[in-house]
Request: fold
Amino acid sequence: MTSPNRVISGAVIYPGLAIGALITLAPFTLGLLTSFTSARQFNTASPLSLPNPPTLQNYTGLADAGFGRALIVTALMTTVILIGQLTFSVLAAYAFARLRFPGRDVLFWVYIATLMVPATVTVVPLYLMMAEVGLRNTFWALVLPFMFGSPYAIFLLREYFRTIPADLINAARIDGANTLDVIVHVVVPASRPILVTLALITVVSQWNNFMWPLVITSGSKWQVLTVATAGLQSRYNAQWTVVLAATTAAIVPLIVLFVALGRHIVRSIVVTGLK
Reply:
């Protein structure tokens, strides 16, 4: 029999969650509807009115503006950074979690302390470094600063790797596995949920990166989605239907990715909580 306290808490919690979901989803829904609204209707009718009739003219305008190239550049940049981040973060995290060498803990915490340094502080030094080696306004300038792991990723993986039973690693060692074999065949499969979570965090952060691509690139050749979307506001004289079409096109891949990987994220939270 359901207790009265549970009924009362459910009557409070679920409506509160529904209101929170409504507040969160309302701007995205309005942006999606506006992206299918003609500029004339947007300027004359209520912003809350449904598209009448729905039109793809805003998305066609994106194609004519070269938005497709920005989408390809962003996808390629994010993929390269993701591969580099996962590879180097896994190697570094395993070294800090399982290998023993002088100064390991001191080096780890000094590296983690760099999380307190604002990202904006490093923009000028990074720009000068890239300009000095002739990489300004190139694809490699977009990806190199973010490929070799990050303090957050290494900290997250290190803490997870420390929960993997030592017996698994020792058994692999007895079978003749070297360190790289242990990482590839034992640690990575056992850490799949947290790796998927880290991959999603990396994709979202790099997909939405604005400051660094804006500073290090110029022109349309290596323009990413965030910079291209910001440029649309001035290029199209604040035609918000086109801008919101660009925003919707940029968000859809992230939503698809989250839906596809959502169960792995929940599993990582559950497993981490149990451990």
Summary: The mean pLDDT is 84. The longest helix spans residues 240-274.
